Amino acid sequence: MITINGKEHHFTKTTLQELLVERNLAIEICAVEVNTILIPHKDRDEYKLQDGDKVEIVSLVGGG
Amino acid sequence: MTSQKIPPLQLQKITLTSRLVVGTGKYPEYETMQTALEESGCSAVTVAVRRERLVDDKGRSILDFIDCDKYTILPNTAGCFTAKDAVRVARLGRDILEQLTNPGSSWVKLEVLGDKTTLLPDPVGTLEACKELVADGFSVMCYSSDDPIMAARIRDAGATCVMPAGSPIGTGRGIANPCAIKLCIDVLKEPEHGGDPSYPVIVDAGVGTPSDVTIAMELGADGVLLNTGIAHAKDPIQMARAMRLACDAGYHGFRAGRIPRKLHASASSPWDGTIAGE
After folding, report:
1. What is the rounded CA–CA span in Å between residue B243 and residue B237?
2. How many CB atoms lie within 10 A of CB A19?
3. CA B227 to chain centre
4. Are A62 and B169 in contact (CB < 8 Å)?
């Protein structure tokens, strides 16, 4: 299992970029952490997710 | 005649052409936010970083309503209660802005909060996060209390700008302790107190009405950051316009040099030639 934004999902061997494509986020402006470490956007194609990873996908929202 | 044009505020690599920095939260809809930002005349806007909420129920993103070529985007670390989390959020914000090629990618509005009720800053966590982010190459705009000792420590930790709170976020109480804000400004900017006149101080939080902005500027602040005071006004667009005028008034008023406060009256008309009492 991997956790994405606090929710568990079945793990499949995939890169971070493939995960974003699967979630229809590949063309959106977002940032991603795995296990509290930022994975720079330029490294997403290379980064391979592991079973048990905790992924955070964030974007910009209104704020003060 | 003295020029009416207010010079830009330089914050390391960022140039602010307006002394107002305006938040993008709490507006009733994106269209109002967009127009209010325009009316405020601001050149920098703050945003928050949150889990995947890329579009609203109409399929629109906040970035559809913020011109990234016009505004420098300042990501905040709002909602963080530890230095570790604030550093994480700052790095995430930077990664997003690098993708947008926005000049704001080099900076962050740092907030490390103490509790949810007051939203006042945790001074220990703030200082810790500030040092780590400065070491990581960020220009840190640091949200702080109105404690002048803390303000000096944040500056000494390498913050690009100290941002003392006028009053707690969203309270609309304005400058609750003007003497404390003045002490912060003095310790940061007055040479006799070890300060540097060019060190930026932006009053952040608690603005409720335009006169709050004017008061902050009349105390010697270089700018004001506000969100709720515009977003939750009955007419946010008119309020944004008023805030802009208030900021200009305070900027000029501070430099014009006010008269001293006196205990006793001083007549504005001459006593000579009066017919009264004949």
Report:
1. 10
2. 23
3. 9
4. no
**pTM of the model as a whole:** 0.94
Task: Select from B127, B217, B132, B204 the least CA-distant residue to B168.
Answer: B204
Q: Which helix (H) or strand (E) holds B179?
A: helix B178-189
Check if the interface score ipTM surpasses 0.85. yes
Q: Is B259 left (phi over 0), alpha (psi -120 to 50) or beta?
A: beta
Segments making up each domain of chain A, as ranges: 2-59
User: How far apart are alpha carbons A18 and A10 in whole angstroms?
Assistant: 14
Nearest Cα neighbor of A5 from A43, A59, A63 is A59
| Domain A2-59 CATH superfamily | Beta-grasp domain (3.10.20.30)
Which member of B26, B58, B70, B109 is catalytic? Answer: B109
Q: How far is A52 from chain B (nearest CA, A)?
A: 19
Residue A61 CB neighbour total at 10 angstroms: 18
- Catalytic, B84? Answer no
Could you say which of B52, B73, B84 has the minimum Cβ distance to residue A59? Answer: B52
Q: What is the pLDDT of residues B166-209, one digit of tens each?
A: 999 999 999 999 999 999 999 999 999 999 999 999 999 999 99
